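Subject: Sanity check before I submit

Could someone independently write out the structure tokens for this chain? I want to compare against mine line by line before I put it in a report. The sequence has 408 residues.
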Amino acid sequence: MRTINQITIVSSVLMTLFSCSKDKDIDSNPGTITTPVEANAPNTTYKPAFEGQTRINGVQTNTPYEGVVLATSLTSPWGIKSLPDGRLLITEKTGTMRIATTAGVLSAPITGIPAVNAAGQGGLLGLTIDPEFTANRMIYWVFAEATTGGNNTAVAKGKLSADEKTIEGATVIYRAKPANASTLHYGGRILFDKTGSLVISTGERSVLETRPLAQSVATGLGKVIRITKDGQPASGNPTFTQSGALPELYSYGHRNPQGLALNPVTNEIWLAEHGPRGGDEINRIKAGANYGWPTITYGIEYSGEKVGAGIQQQDGLEQPVYYWDPVVSPSGMTFYTGNRVPEWQNNLFIGALSGMHIVRLAIKDNKVIGEERLLASENQRFRDVTQGNDGALYAITDGGRLYKIDKK
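---
Independent answer below. Compare away.
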């Protein structure tokens, strides 16, 4: 027969085990754990810097969900954001904006936008709306601008007219210099941080002559830029000691960053960038930090040769939170803050271009703990994804589709 003390001890142990299990579920219950989703051989024999940096275990959403096509007639859409009334504002690469209802009804093209250079990877790119949009109707966007000496990644702002047919007073507020004839690697995402400053990702323009400029703090290429609504350097930016450092820089050493999002738990900036063959990255952005391109990378040249010295780690250079080899070509992304699909809480969703799916990364303590591929059967290049005011996810594809992704 057990004594009262024995029963008390057993009860205490069981309560502790239950509490630990419950806490674990609350902290991280991403769904059913599976084998890693990437089954193809990597391009390299490079080793990750830490466990879980690549090819993490797969995870499967248990809550029934579906992806529904709302529209199919967009023209190369590139960016999507929710308006306060729940409708969706979308940029099209060729230089127009459209408004879509959550039923998929599209407006006529919005005029008044400065000319874009849509050649190559250029065009009208990412967008965001002013935190005070209801009062001021201001929109901010990134675009490829043809100028003397080549092309720039440029940032503009303007007011959406009351009849929603045009952008009024469009003004360019920032240009990432130097200009170059390349039509590649513009970067191109933009958002507001919690201080009300604009954060912009710029690419290093791809060509060998500009690639090293990702490491130069005297240029705007291959950077995360942080500016005011008027295009001036934002208060609180890091101070770089190198000669000629630009005051608008927030971080450097980036290749072609097409994804930008704020972590809803920490308010930190997270960024997705394209690698070459292998080496697509997810980075947690720290003020003043160097993210290594082209000095370190988990990818190789398209020719198969090493990039530079072929190293993946170096003191003073940041490691990615996560990387892919082979690439998935990560583009626009968002953190999920809804509650309609509980497993998705605070997960990161990323449009994959060559991967032709939407990546879901379950994250705990700034580390990836699981990866899932959504809508892979759709065979679409997913360019951007955002969360709607209704708690659903909305995604656009290069093929002109608008999707709603939500609980069934």
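---
OP: Matches mine. For the report I'm noting this point. The two ends are 53 Å apart (CA to CA).
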